[in-house]
Amino acid sequence: MVAEAWGRRRYKAVFVNKLDEALGEATETQSWLDDARRSGYLSIEQFEALDSKYTSIGQMLSRMIDRADDFCKYAPSTDYRALSPRVTETESSADALPIVDEFFK
Predict the structure, then answer these.
(1) Residue 57 half-sphere exposure, CB side, CA atoms within 13 Å?
(2) Nearest to 10 by CA among 58, 81, 61
(3) Which has more pLDDT, 76 or 66?
(4) Measuring CA to CA, which residue among 24, 2, 21 is closest to residue 71?
(5) What whole-number distance in Å separates Cα of residue 83 and Cα of residue 28?
C-alpha cells in the first residue's frame, strides 16, 4: 500500500488514504502479534522485537501522513517518471535501521 500511495502522490487525498490503509494494516499486524504471543507461538523476545518494528513502521507512516504536503509537491498533471531515476534498494533492512532512527529526530 505504501508503493500505491507513492505512485498516487500527485493526489494528496489518495496519498493520505493509502498511507492510512497501510497504517491500519500495521496496527492489525500488531494485534495478530499479541494473539501469537498469548498463544505461545512467539517468545517474549520475538514478540518485543517484532512489536518494536511495527511500532516504528506505524510512527513512520503517521509522520508521512502528517507531512503529506512534502511528498505531494507537484501538480496532478506532473509525470513523476521524468523527475528522477527509479530508486533501487541497495541496503539490507538491518543496515537501514540507523536511517529510520534519524527520520524521527
Answers:
(1) 21
(2) 81
(3) 66
(4) 2
(5) 35
What's 73's DSSP letter?
A: -
The answer to which of 7-11, 43-47, 96-100 has the lowest mean pLDDT is: 96-100
Task: Identify the residue whose cell numbers are 511528498.
Answer: 71
User: How much is the average pLDDT of 30-50?
Assistant: 93
pLDDT, mean of residues 83-89: 61
Q: Which of 12, 11, 4, 7 is nearest to 65 (CA)?
A: 12
Q: Which three cell numbers stand for residue 1?
A: 500500500
Q: Which domains does the chain have, with CATH numbers?
A: 2-103 (1.20.1440)
Query: Which amino acid would we find at residue 97?
Result: L
Contacts of 46 (CB under 8 A, 6+ apart): none
What gap in Å lies between CA 18 and CA 26, rounded to an integer? 12
Cα–Cα distance for residue pair 18/9, rounded to 1 Å: 10
Q: Cell 537501514 sits at which residue?
A: 96
